[in-house]
Design brief:
heterodimer; A: mainly alpha; 3 helices; B: two-stranded antiparallel ribbon; 19 helices; 2 strands
Chain lengths: 100, 482
Amino acid sequence: MITLGNYLALSGIIFSIGLMGVVTSRNVLKVLLSLELLLAASNISFVAFSKFNGDYAGQLIVFFVILVAAAEVAIGLAIVVLMYRRLSTIQADELRTMKW
Amino acid sequence: MFPVIDWSLVSLEVLISIILVSLVVVDIVLPKNADKDWIGIFSFIALAGLIIFWLTQGSLSGTTFSGMFVMDSLAWFFKTFFLIAMVFVFAMTQEFFKSLGERRNEFYLLLWLALIGMCLVASSADFLLLFISIEILTISLYVMTAYLKSDALSIEAGMKYLILGALASGFFLYGISFLYGTTHSTHFSVIQSYCQIHAMSPMTLFALVLIFAAVGFKIAAVPFHMWVADVYQGAPTPVTALLSVGSKAAGFIILIRLFFSIFGAWHAEWGLALAILSAITMTYGNLVAMFQTNIKRLLGYSSISHAGYLLMGAAAGTALGASGINFYLLGYLFTNLAAFLVIIVFSIATKSDEIADYAGLSQRSSLLACTMLLALVSLAGMPPLVGFFGKFTLLMAVIKSGYIWLALIAGVNIVISLYYYLMVAKRIYVDPPRHTAKIIVPSKIRLLLVIAILGIVIIGIFQGPFLDAAMAAVQGMYLSHL
């Protein structure tokens, strides 16, 4: 029997992987990917809570989150393209003209 | 059955959306390569109309969209604030982007989009709407930050802002999901009644910390401040001005709604934590600001320290504290925008944001020098300017709530901040100029500089009606817990 705890553990693991990815990745594309994982983790916990609490609001929120995540990654990729054109790199640690 | 929607409550947002859509059409229809800045002129006329309309709507109150959208005195106060800030930002944009040609048209549209986001933040009564409106605001800010696509600093700032901003919204959403799990709702009123009955559990504490991380990112509180200095320095200056005033105020209205209504019942748990955070934030901001050589970066660290002062009001947890936040922000609006107006005119004339280049500014333009001096001295908190009374109200609030140590730390910080603000003033007035060419201030900017100076001086001297307005905004708050 899969319980709410299992789903929350899954979302917690995915959130931690995403967080580690954002903090440790040097490649900006990997960072964007990890940011998506953070939002996916929230989606899992929303749906799990929605299922086990017995109301639909959580599932509805997920649709809005997917939309926002798509907008965010679109802007992110656009800035990565700009960065590649101007600085010829997509390594996050090359962004050090100003002190990070 | 569909719920009845009261459209009069959402009139401002609807009008702004109509303006935004019609500006998109105008932008497409008008011939390209037009020298005239049509979008900018239309934007100004529309904004002036909106402000006149909005000032007559002070009595609006109620909720609509099934209680997701709330219009109360606090929302009215902050929307007025955002509209005034936008007048300045539009004028800065017109000057700053003169060289960009038609590419600046999209920038105006992004500014309108950010304005919608800020207004919706002020009116959110549900975490779903709050999340989406924050994203509308920040996503348009990401684009604007990276807007100077040939400038490596702007791209770098945009990338850093996007990564840390998206991280903050990830935290926010994860926090909301746990709050939703425990209270079975995302609506403020349901969560508030849950908090009044139940004590804080580990799960709600976890959710509260995550949500606060996202708000702390918006208001630039330590330890969520890493983006501030770089983004302030790299972003186009009008965006920096919007970030330092609009985005920060949007963060503070969320903070007021969180701590003075939703989680108000748990004041005993979070009061001390906020006080400690406030002390750390102001000390960090002021200490690091002393060593800056770039004026935008200096104002970035000064903005962190002001977030610390403002957090004092939240830590106090009383109506006086909340109204102190409102009043302080009102003063901060005029003071900071005055400083950024000077920075923009100066950087257009000299292509520099270095403090060293400000030497002898008083001989090159007495209006710019005088505005900058007033703004810096008001930021430092000298009477009788508005910065002084803002700090005074907040200090009163924390002392009345029993945080005497916090008031002492704030006092020490005000002295530290005097040092670096007056160092800039010394450069402007005492040091000999490197170049002697006069700086010409465009007449529109001159008018706005005078308005900002009047704001700094008049609100400082006749603070009574403005303090009353700030207090009234708090007292009429939806779901108030004071």
